[in-house]
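Entry for magnesium ion complex. Fields follow.
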Amino acid sequence: MPTTYVYRFSEGDKDQKDLLGGKGANLAEMTRLGLPVPPGFTITTDACRAYLATGEVPEELAVQVTTALREVEAELGRHLGAAEDPLLVSVRSGAKFSMPGMMETVLNIGLNDESVKGLAAASQDERFAWDSYRRLIQMFGKTVLDIDGEHFASALEAKKADRGVSLDYELDVAALTELVEEYKAIVREYAGIDFPQDPRAQLDMATEAVFRSWNTERAHIYRRREKIPHDLGTAVNVCTMVFGNMGQTSGTGVCFTRDPSTGRSGVYGDYLVNAQGEDVVAGIRNTLSLSDLKTIDPESYKELRAAMRRLETHYRDLCDIEFTIERGKLWLLQTRVGKRTAAAAFRVATQLVDEKLITKDEALTRVTGDQLTQLMFPQFEHTGDNDLITKAMPASPGAAVGRIVFDNAEAVARAEAGESVILVRRETNPDDLPGMVAAVGVLTARGGKTSHAAVVARGMGKTCVCGADQLEVDAAAKTIRVRGREDLVLTSEDTIAIDGQTGEVFLGEVPVADSPVMTYLRRGLEVALDAAGDVDSRELITSVDRLMRHADEVRRLEVRANADNPDDARHAIHRGAQGVGLCRTEHMFLGERKQFVQNLILAQTPQERESALAALLPLQKGDFVQMFETMNGKPMTVRLIDPPLHEFLPDFTELSVKVALDRERGTLDPADEELLAVVRRNHEANPMLGLRGVRLLLTMPGLIELQVRAIAEAAVERLKAGGDPRPEIMIPLIGSVRELQIARERVEAVLTEVSQASGYELDFPVGCMIELPRAAVGADTIAEEADFFSFGTNDLTQTTWGFSRDDVEGTFFKEYLEEGVFGVSPFETIDERGVGRMVELGAERGRQTKPDLKLGVCGEHGGDPESIEFFHRAGLNYVSCSPFRVPVARLEAGRAAV
Ligand code: ADP
Ligand code: MG
Ligand code: MG
C-alpha cells in the first residue's frame, strides 16, 4: 500500500492535526460543515518529514498531487494556469501548532505570461491580473528562490517614482507589465534561472519551499520558545485562490468570535477593502472594523456572522477566522481556536460555562497556570505625574518599562547586556522575532489587534501596544517624533513605559502596582472587586475566582508552601496554601546566629558544646513558636538542618590569606589559626555530595536533639496557649533505612522527654526526604521507618543526572537545550522519563510497605504546571511550592484532576 500523502479538504477533519496540520485539519472541518471554503487539498506532514529526511519529494506524492489537482479542476471546470480563465492556487504552510507568520505562503500560483491574460479577460480587470502576476513573482522569488526581497521592493519604489505616484495600487497596467519584466530579470540575475512558466513546476517548487521553511532560523526560535518539537514538520495546503483585491466590492479580513485581548463577549475584527491576503496582517494600511463591513456589504456580513456562530458552537471556543470577499461572495480561508490573552482566557472560559456551551471541568482545561501567572504581574500605577505621550491599541497586556530600541540586532545586544528594552517599529514582520523575544515590550505605529506584532506578542505573553499612529518612527535615524509634541524627539537613550491593558505610552519610568488579580489573591474577592477600576477588571476577577474555586473542589493534590518565616507562611495561607510542606531550618542559623553555630562546630569539650547548644535553643524555639502560631491547625513540615557544614564557616581561601598576612605582621589571633584548622579539616571538594543532611545530624553530637527540643518545646508553649501546632519532622538526604532509624530514635527520645516533662502528648510524624536514587530504589525498606516521604526533586534531579545544579545553568545547559538533549531544563520541569521514574518508583515501593504513606514533593517543581500534572498522575498527596506559586499550583492541580 502506498502512503497517502494527499487529502482533499472534503476528506479530513479537525482531529487530524498531526497529519494535516492545524490549518489543513480546520479547512477540512469547515468544508465538512458546508461552510464556503475554496476547494483544495492538503499534503501531509508525513510528506514533509520524508522530504526533510531525504532531500527529495517522494514519488508517490507527485502522483497523488496530480489526482487531487485534477479533481479540483474538474469540480471548478478550470485548469491550473490555463490560458483561458485559469485556476490559481495558494500554497500555504500549516503545522500542527500554529506558528503565526513563521513560515511561508505563496499566493497566485499558476500565473504566467499567458494565463495572466486569461485572468485579465475572466476578471475583466487587466490591472488586477498584472498586479497579481507581479505579486507572484515577488513572493515566489523571495520565498522559493531565496532572493533578497529588497531587490523587488526597490524596483517597485523606482517604478512608483518614475510614474510620480505614491501608492502601489496607483500603478497602471503599462507600469505593471514593465515591472513584471523587471522582476523576471531580477529572478534571472539572482537565482540564475528564468521565472518558471510551467504552473505545475511553480506548484511543486512552492511546496518544497514550504517544507524547507520548517527549518528556517526564525521557525526554530519560535518553536524553542513555545516548546514545540522540531521534528513534527509542516503540512502544505493547496487552496483555490479567491480575490479580495478585485475592486471595491472585494476585501479581506480577520475576525474573532470574542475579543481576544480583553475577552469581552461580542465579535471583533478588522477588514480591508480591495486588498489581498497578508495586507491585513502586515499592518500596511489601517483597517476598518468588522461593524463597518455591515454597512459596506450587509449580505456578506450576515453570512459571516452566521459562520462565526456556527464555528464557535462547533469548536465550543473562541475562534479566529480569515476570510475574503470576492465581488460580494464570502469565502472562509482559515479558522482555528484563537490565541488569546490570559485575561481573555479566563473570561471566555466562564462565559462559555454561563452559555452552557462547556462544563466547569472543561472550563478548567481552557486556562493555564502560566496564564494565571501573567495576571499576577504588576501594572502601572496611575499617579498624576505620568507623562502620557500617546494612547493606541492595547494588543497584549502587561506593563513594560524600558529603553527604546529600533531594530533586532540592537534589541538582542542590549538585552544581553542586561538592559530592559522596548522594541519600537513602524510595524513588525516575521524577521523581527529575535528582537521581540529579547525586548520586554513591543510598540508599533501601524497595524491593529490582528497585526503581526499583536498576534506574536500575545502568543509570547509579551506586552504590546500597536497602531500608535501619532508616532513617526524613523528606524534609520533612530528617532521617534510625536505628532502634537513638536519639541519632543525620542532616541535610543529614552525610557518609555507601555501599558498593554490600556494602550497608553508614557515617557520615562512609571511606578507599578498590584494587578486586580493579585489584589484578589492577596486580599480576597470583596476587596478586589471594590478596588477594581472598571467592568473588565471586575469580570476578570470574578472569572478567576470561579475557576479557582472549582479547581479547589476537584483537585486531589493538596497544595502546601515552602516557607521559612512567619511572613512567607502568612502570604502562603492568604493564597490558599493548606500547610507548609517545607520549612527549612538552616535559615534560622544564618546572619548573626552563624557565630553560635561556629561555636558548636569549634567546641572541644562537652561543656563548650553544651553552652553553644544552650545559646541556640531559645533562638530556634522562638522561631518555631511564631511559625506554629501562624500555621495554627495546619501541618508544617520542618526539615532538620540540611546544608554542608562549610556554609556556616568562613571561606577557606579568605581565611587562609588573612591568617598568613596576620602571621607575617605578627598580629595573628590564635583563635583564627584554630578556626582555619577546622575549616581546612571540613573543606570538601564536592560539598553537595559531602557532609550534609542526615550525615551531619548523625555526626554532630547534640544537633538533632537541639532542633527537636526547640520544636517540641515550642509546640508545648503553643499548646499551653490553646494553640494547635502540627509539626512533621523531616530528615533530609536519607540513603539508607539505618540512617533514618538512628535519627528517628533520637528524635523520639527527645519528644518523649519533653512530653513527660510537660505532660502534653507529642507524637509528631517523622518522615524523610527522598532525594537520592538509593532512597527511591530502596523506598520499600525506608518506608518501614517513615511516616511520610517528601520528594526533594531539586536534589533528586542533581543526583539522578549527576549534575551540579549550582554550575550547569552557566556551563553546558545552553548547548544541551539547543541540541535537544532536553526541551527545557530538568530543574524547571521534572524530567519525567528519568527523575520522574525515580519518583514513581519511590512512591510505588513506599506504598508497598505502607499503603497509606503520605507522599509530597517540595522544591521548584512543586510550582511548575507540567510537573504538577505529573505529580498528580504519580499519585502524590501534595505539592509544596513558593508562596507566590500557590495559586498556580492550586489551579494546575485542579486541571490535572479533570
Ligand atoms: P498564515 O499561516 O501566515 O496565516 P496563510 O496560509 O493563512 O498564512 O496565508 C497568508 C495570507 O494569504 C492570509 O491572509 C490568507 O487569508 C491569504 N490567502 C491564503 N490562501 C488564499 C487563497 N486561496 N485565496 C485568497 N487569499 C489567500
Ligand atoms: Mg492565515
Ligand atoms: Mg535537598
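NOTE: The first helix runs from residue 17 to 32.
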